[in-house]
Design a protein that fits this description.
alpha+beta, 6-stranded mixed beta sheet, 5-stranded mixed beta sheet, 19 strands
Length: 598
Amino acid sequence: MRRAIGLLAAVLTLGAAAPATVHFNQLGFLPDTAKRAIVADPAAAPLPWRVIDAAGQVVAAGRTTVFGNDAASEDHVHQLAFDAVRTPGVYRLEVAGVTSRPFEIVAGLYRPLAGAALNYFYQTRAGIAIEARYAGGRQWARAAGHPHEVAGCFAGSDERGTVWPGCPYTLDVTGGWYDAGDQGKYVVNGGIALWTLQNLYEANRATPPFADGSAALPEAGNGRNDLLDEARWEMRFLLAMQVPDGQRLALPVGRQASGPLRLTTVDAGGMAHQKVADRNWTALPTIPAEDREERLLYPPSTAATLNLAATAAQCARVWKGSDDAFAQRCLAAAARAYAAALRNPQISAAQAFTGSGGYGDDDVADEFYWATAELYAATLLPELARALHAMALHDAPLRGEPGWSSTAALGTITLATATGVPAPERQAARAKLVALADQFIAEKAQSGYGLPYATTRYPWGSNGAILNRGIVLALAARFTGEERYRDAEVDTADYVLGRNPLGQSYVSGFGWMPMTRPHHRFWAHQFDPRLPGPPPGVIGGGPNNTAFADTIAATMRGTCAAMRCWRDDGRAYALNEVAINWNAPLLWVATDLAMPRR
């Protein structure tokens, strides 16, 4: 990783900086995929451009295509492509006399990013000391946060006035990944992040990425795939969040609009607690080992229970044959969780707590579909096939990219890629995913920046949303063999790495203008010079013009175009927080683009 970053720094010294009017992927390009750039310029007529190699020779030339006014950026933009330039080397792009910074065309372009994006998960582990030899330097080493974490349930009044009686047990929930800039650990959100890592392995099972010893992990060399080793750290945490059998808990049933929640005593055995987190918000910064807040389990929810059922069933598949005992443990937990969700289908996540995020989701039809698909793929039981086919989502078209509250596509991806799924089921799932990818590609024509994401409403975590579209596009490329899907996947990587109106790489340590000041309690050099900035390979949330929730974002309300509502500022948690569910699709897409073509 350090060698690759040094090489990039050396490359960047070969030419002068360009104004922030020519935007492209600051890492460069693969030889065999699309090579696109965007020029923000008011000119109504096409502009001349040319690509110049390190010897000063012109290797491609043309004129831009005028897109015109782009609603999401409020730029007047031109588009250009130089796909025919395939020879590895260092180049510059000149547009209307303005010369860009140098960039590379190289086959191994994404390998350093893939490794760094995986290492992010090691560095966000709870319950273990983070060592310099694995983290990339002494500045990122830290003592274990929340070791031997044995937590009891929240008891008392919440901010809504609901009085929670607590529970008669404690759980050892040591380990797992810290969710984001805070030090909460969540089953909802942890679920989609974990699924993404396990799917990256399962979708490439013939030649899985991150062979043993290839990643900077303490488990490297144990004879098991390094990607699975990292995923296991989170899987064990999710397993630990399961309510013991026979426990009856007072929980809210159904949606309740206002006032204190009415609690009903239910058989909660097998459900999953929503999260374990601090009683109160910690200050910014707070080193994990110095967190003095009381750690508490928060009430179980149906959504969290189905996240556990889905990821544990997936775990049973990916570990079968290499650790059969762990696979069986996962499958048993998945079955218990699924049964508990069927028994308690309307337990919403209680939201009126301070000290942690809510991840509330009252519509769990998609989680039921996801969990059913995962369990069916793990067992092929006829009763699960019948349950799956009875669900409206099974035959309905997919809408939008997957996310923590929209998980139906995850189940469809599993049906399309898991070994042993019957051919008719697999082909139907693949057809749904290709149709979804076609929707994304259709949006490119509406985007001045050429993105398979055309909207003027950029949500919280928009970078993660765009990269999750990249996963769907990558799979469509595999299923069809059509280059346009892979090129659209590249568009999503290009965007987060600099092809955007801010000329910003949203990924730390990569590109000439990387994200440097995330909202994070340890990577907080902005607030304490003794603390480090982020290690390479961490992605910020991205532009957000739908929730101006923090003090920095609040100053931007009504003043910024959708793609420009962003600041590299650790106070801006609505814009620049980091999170496991955003780094996971970065890892998936970067790894896919780093792997040999199928």
